Amino acid sequence: MNPHEREVAFSSPVNRELVHRASTSEVLPTSFSDTSKGTFVAGIQWPRRHSFYGPERFDSALIAETIRQLTVLTLHEGYRVPLEHKFMMTGFGFQIHGVQPSVVRRAAAVELVGFVSLVDARWSGTDLRGGKVEVAIRTREGQLIAEGYGVARICSASTYARIRRQGLGDSLGKTQRLEKLPASDVGRQHASDVMIGRTSDPAIHSIQADLDQPYFFDHALDHVPGVALIEAIRQHACIQHANPHVDLQRFEATFTRVVEHSPSATVHASPHSENLFLITQGPAVCVRATATLRVFGPTQVSRKFPSSVKGGAQPAPGALLLE
Prior knowledge:
- This protein has helices at residues 60-78, 157-163, 226-240; strands spanning 29-36, 39-46, 86-96, 110-124, 127-139, 144-155, 196-198, 204-207, 246-255, 266-270, 273-281, 284-295, 302-303.
- It is mostly beta strands.
- The protein is globular.
């Protein structure tokens, strides 16, 4: 029995505003409480089925979204950051650990426990200005499923508007419509779930953000969100390895610039290291990410690469992720 079992509940989701979601059905945390100074515990419920990610195989998109929601929830609920404030995430990472199939292959929804703490906090008087939120996701029995982190800079709505140019946040923007890849090539079921398209160079893919995609765009965003960029990297890896079952087992990223809706950004592996992925828009590098890949198939072979960024730039003040 997990010693924190009595501190979690699963009967209903937390308020959707606390995790920056418009749809209540997409809210994953079900409770949040303070266990001791600087440490929090959250109930988490994953759906039995979902139109986008697959809980039955611990989809990296599901892990990333869980960590994103716990990061946002902790800053709002744990540190009373006002709901109108903006979180400009400059770093994000996760690692998925081996789990028994019985954890998720059952009729009931999956109930988990998240342990969360804030480190490297930056304060201005009594106002929290940023920090690194560390997350560990465990089964109710205590088995570690995944761990990760989000590094956030916190700013007021007015400061955000100045950074993003006044009025830009009121518009979704326009995205170019280019040829997408078949959904089956990147391990997805629906065309709207495909995040990348072809370019003249087979080693480079354009990022195709579909504003009608309900998972990534269930509320208005003035940029391409970080979870969509992470998925674009995964899909690019599927094509590069000619296997739709490729997923991210370990992932770390530095977000140095906002990815706008237009012109189309591109994703490619670094010519110097196949485990280093870059997302660029025009001449600017927006995201540097390293990944260890895993392959889901009949034998579930794991393909591993080193996970250290070479020559990574320091995050700029304008980096934005997972809003």
